[in-house]
Amino acid sequence: MSPPTRSRSAFLLRLVPTALAVFYLPLADQPGNPVDGWAWAFALGAAALFAFGRRIPLTMVLCLSGLLVITDRIGTHADVVVILATFAALIDLALHRDRRWIAAGVLAAAVGLFVNFVDVPLAPLQPPFFFVVTGVIASLLGAPILLGLHLKAARLATAEAQQRAVELEQRRESEKAMVRATERTAIARELHDIVVHHVASIVLRVGVARHLDPDADPETAAALDDVHATGTAALADLRRLVAVLRDPATLDEEAHAPLLLDPADLPDLLHQAVARSRNAGLSLDASVDPGVAGLDAVRGLALLRVVQEGLTNVLKHAGPHASATVTVAATADGAVRIDIFDDGTAAKRHPPTGGHGLLGLRERIHLLGGEFEAGPGLGLAGWRIQAVLPVTAMAAGPA
Q1: What is the reported pTM?
Q2: Does residue 257 surpass a pLDDT of 80?
């Protein structure tokens, strides 16, 4: 039950004495013993006191005990309603106050009930009758007090259980964060000690090779320069990625640079990826819609990674004489379609299933709510990658 619903139900329960007064007093109106205005005044007054006196339970009990005495002295029909309100107020008192205030409220209520029940002077009371009346009153007062204490204990137990659940959830989240931090640190260490080391070695060796043969033919020199530039850029990206893995707080700083891009630069970056593949010897026909410059940074990065990984797979698996086409088109509704197809025969015989590149692309596109397919082309010739990046809420705007 939600808090507003619980509060509404609790207030409706506090209207029970009011309902009793409304239904009981007309029934108690007899020809020889009519219900007068005092009865209505005291009954509705006691009901209103209970309905709105939740924050002052001891004062409420004291006032209702006084009304018990007054109604007995006047002799009205309101005593039933006042007694019920008193019992309910004792439940409130036991639920919200400590033992001292409970004892004071019980004593006051006992006096009111005793005066209300006993219509003879106190002096002539015989001990057996006195003890019987006292026992009955104690039993009547004990029931609401015990009920209130039980409700208080149940409420405390529920609060403690909820607190333990919150603490347990916080502890689990803390443990998960520690595990993720440990995993990130291990991955960063392996990247730095193995991958970064090898890429740095490649860059260094390519640079040395370029300077050892200054008279190399232009094609060889251009290929070496391209490998050196690509390796240098990859090395910088790896170092930034290692920094992000070791300290995610740097995600909003310079280390975030390789993880996001300026959408305005996206067409140029796509053309650079195509140019690198052509320089590597791939016959490639590319069509890039300039409208992709309007993508948000997250979708733009996903688009760039699909094209890069798709072209890498063509170079690795399509064979030396393959040709490929890359089509990147923005649809009228703001979605983006990517189609990368090659006619290589090696892809048919040995589809690229050994690595994690396509799996990573599939996960990246699905996280954005898009579609991704990779497999043999039509007629089982070549290999085709198709992806659709959907319109994001930011791109779509208000409906």
Answers
A1: 0.45
A2: no
Which structure tokens are listed for 376? 């043999």
**Alpha-carbon gap, residue 288 to 311, rounded angstroms:** 14
CA 138 to chain centre: 51
Instruction: Name the token pair of 25.
Output: 């007093």
User: Can you read off the two tokens belonging to residue 212?
Assistant: 């050892």
| pLDDT score of 255 more than 50 | no
Question: How buried is residue 398: exposed, middle or buried, by Cβ count under 10 Å (0-12/13-18/19+)?
Answer: exposed
CB of 383 closer than 8 Å to CB of 318: yes
pLDDT tens for each residue of 65-82: 888 888 877 777 777 888
Please report, for the chain, how many H helices and E strands are present, in that order: 14, 5
CA distance 220 to 243: 35
Cα 298 to chain center, whole Å? 22
Q: pLDDT band at 338, cuts 50/70/90?
A: very high
Task: Give first-to-last CA distance, the chain, whole Å.
Answer: 34
CB 295: neighbour CB atoms within 10 A? 23
Rounded Cα distance, 100 and 122, in Å = 28
| Closest among 61, 59, 58 to 96, alpha carbons compared | 58
Contact 82, 46 (CB under 8 A): yes
